[in-house]
Amino acid sequence: MSPSAGGCFDADGGCACLAQQNGDAETAANCKSGDSYCEHCSYGSADSSSFPSFSCSSSSLWLDSTRLREYGKLSRILVASAKGFTIGAGLKGGLSLFSVLAGLKRRKALASLGKKGVITNRDAISMALKETLRYGLFLGTFAGTFVSIDEIIGNMAGHRRTARWRALLAGALAGPSMLLTGLNTQHKTLAIYIFMRAAVLASRCGIKSKRLGHICKPLTWSCGDIFLMCLSSSQILSAYVLKQDSLPPSFRSFLNTHGGKDTVILEGLKSFVSGMPSSNKFKAVEKYYSAMGSTVKLDPQMKTPCTIIHGNQSCGGHFLSFLIQGYKRALPVYLPVYLIPALIVHREGLMNRPYEILARGLLGTARSSLFLSAYCASAWMWTCLTSRTFKKINIPLVALATFLTGLALAIEKKSRRIEISLYCLSRGIESFFSCMTDLGYLPPSLNFKRADVIVFSISTSIIMHCYAQEREVFRSKYLNVLDWVFGVPPPPCETPRCKNGNKC
């Protein structure tokens, strides 16, 4: 045997451990004093479990290296948990902070009116802190559980032998950590969104496949993201006007803020579109505009809802004024969206080229804010234009008008379009099935308890498998975040024989 840096090898360049496994005890026993420890054994690969009695002469070096590697594995688990907690608490904390600040003025106004049931600012801050802690524990536990199971399976059954399925199982077993956000808190939207992300990764793997490439070819269409956004908008915005209770409360609040319309106007529009105009609701709309300093009279026989939507203002004038107001509302939303990832993903670049990265962040904020404001403004514009074109308005025409609203996504950067469309698609799917269930088309028995956890676990299983085995299907920025949290996954083959270029 000839000693080599990092392991004990036989005359053919193979590992001495493999020699003992194959029955060649003489070769395995000829490890000379002073040889370094065997990396093959100390790393705990697939073959090392078969010959635990073998050790090199320099046992102290081997033991020290083993302890170092065990410490490294424990350190990886603790660091992954800490980083997961940081991301979860940072993202949720940032959103909660914005929500608290945005609601300060509204809560103060409601409290001054003497309305009961209005939460105080202290209660709002307390709830935000609890939510921040829960999401931090959720992602911290997810990261720690995944890394722990990954290391345990690798040590017990071998890293090389389990490489193809280890991350798949670890991702599935880490999924139930979602329960830490609250045992009675449903996260259907998050689960569906993560499932959409997993489906995208699986489709990219399919595109690479010779067997499934032709089936997945439509997924490569350049405008597919905009089409998905149009489909999502048709369901989401129709539900926003006609059936808001099918939307998640947080998302409904988001739409009510950026939709820019009072609930009185939405109720009047809903009754008009449904073909059941209510004189009481029309009077409420007229009273609202009167309080805003405008005199509006609604004709029950009118054909278009333009007067309900924007009073005496013209359709074009309303679009421009709403666009400006919507842009001001959108800016605070996208500042943390671009700022927080810049601190995490581009943390090293901020030290070297801070002005360039900050300029890109500000440009992205301005562009995304324009998209959101144009999206909301065009929703009302298309509704007015569609009703004027057909001289009437009904539910199918509302669905058509809101479908066209999705075209505003073209303003966004190409790399962000698929993210936004998938997010909205998950919201649309949840709203659609909620509507179908309420209408009686889906039996209540299909509403499995905590189905969100099951879907989330399946999705994370797929995502983490792709992370370990199909890394090229990830965009670089997401891969950087995953590597930062979980650590770069070990290659499928780690033995010295493989490292020397020989076939495993």
TrEMBL record:
PANTHER family: TRANSMEMBRANE PROTEIN 135, TRANSMEMBRANE PROTEIN 135-RELATED
Protein name: Transmembrane protein 135 N-terminal domain-containing protein
Protein species of origin: Cucumis sativus
